């Protein structure tokens, strides 16, 4: 069954404690936390102070997705705030190998995210160092956007690269994941699904998480 990572970007921030509790009590596996700086992406979300407060109430893995320039400046602070998995963007990392080593040296799992236009082949020489490949299936910056179907082919290609290299990386897809496309994504080789709008706009988020979890069975 796929790992389900509800994206807190779509939560109700006036009732954040309630939404965290909902995820705690659901079949979800991770909290997906989107950090945006208004430079790498045209939006600003939240940072380490909110994440460290959430950590006090949340009972599941923190999957932190950094959509920021110069992410390496903040690895230690995100570790302190409670990140378990820390993902940087390929497009924001001049020294990606060094960044992955630094994240792992701090005791976190290291992820790399690719924007929709970035081919998966850029990971060929680093795939064995990666714990999580995050394929963006929308342009990063906002929740509730439409799924870009080319992401499916990228998932199949990364899956093949992982199998051929002996890498243990998980594949996560982020953006526009719905109850309609989830089966196809799991069939293509996705291990972890991020879902913001699909979960938090649903009348029964716990039931929706359960349905996502059962996808592809
Ligand atoms: C987009 C973020 C996503 C976003 C997904 O830049 O990285 O994690 O919250 O939201 P949905 O599932 O609504 O597309
Ligand atoms: Zn994300």
The global form is globular
- Helix percent reads 25-40%
Q: Order of helices and strands, N to C? A: EHEHEHEHEEHEHEHH
CATH fold call: TIM Barrel
Q: How is the quaternary structure best described?
A: single chain
Q: What would you report as the Rg, rounded to the nearest angstrom?
A: 16 Å
User: Strands of the largest sheet, in order across it?
Assistant: 1-8-7-6-5-4-3-2
Descriptors:
217 residues, alpha/beta, TIM Barrel, eight-stranded parallel beta sheet, globular, binds D-xylitol-5-phosphate, binds zinc ion
Characterize the structure shown:
The chain is of the alpha/beta class. It has a single domain, classed as Aldolase class I (TIM Barrel). It has an eight-stranded parallel sheet with strand order 1-8-7-6-5-4-3-2. Strand 7, helix 6 and strand 8 form a beta-alpha-beta unit. The longest helix has 16 residues. The protein is globular and about 45 Å long. The protein starts with a strand and ends with a helix. The site of zinc ion has 6 residues, from strand 2.
Any chance you could write out the topology, listing elements then pairs?
Elements: E1 3-6, H1 16-24, E2 30-36, H2 48-57, E3 61-67, H3 75-81, E4 85-89, H4 96-105, E5 109-114, E6 132-136, H5 150-165, E7 170-174, H6 182-188, E8 192-195, H7 197-200, H8 205-213
Parallel strand pairs: 1-8, 2-3, 3-4, 4-5, 5-6, 6-7, 7-8
D-xylitol-5-phosphate binds next to strand 2, strand 8 and helix 7.
């Amino acid at each position: 069954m796929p790992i389900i990572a509800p994206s807190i970007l779509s939560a109700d921030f006036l009732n954040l404690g309630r939404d965290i509790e909902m995820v705690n009590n659901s079949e979800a596996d991770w909290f997906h936390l989107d950090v945006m700086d208004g430079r790498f992406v045209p939006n600003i979300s939240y940072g380490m102070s909110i994440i460290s407060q959430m950590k006090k109430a949340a009972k599941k893995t923190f999957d932190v997705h950094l959509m920021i320039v110069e992410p390496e400046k903040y690895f230690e602070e995100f570790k302190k705030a409670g990140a378990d998995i820390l993902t940087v963007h390929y497009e924001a990392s001049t020294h990606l190998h060094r960044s992955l080593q630094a994240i792992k040296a701090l005791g976190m799992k290291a992820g790399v995210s690719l924007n929709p236009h970035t081919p998966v082949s850029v990971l060929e020489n680093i795939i064995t160092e990666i714990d999580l490949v995050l394929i963006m299936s929308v342009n990063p910056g906002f929740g509730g956007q439409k799924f870009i179907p080319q992401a499916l082919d990228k998932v199949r290609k990364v899956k093949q690269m992982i199998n051929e290299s002996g890498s243990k990386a998980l594949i996560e897809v982020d953006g526009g994941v719905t109850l309609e496309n989830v089966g196809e994504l799991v069939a293509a080789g996705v291990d972890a699904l991020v879902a913001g709008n699909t979960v938090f706009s649903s009348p029964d988020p716990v039931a929706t998480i359960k349905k996502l979890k059962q996808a592809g069975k």
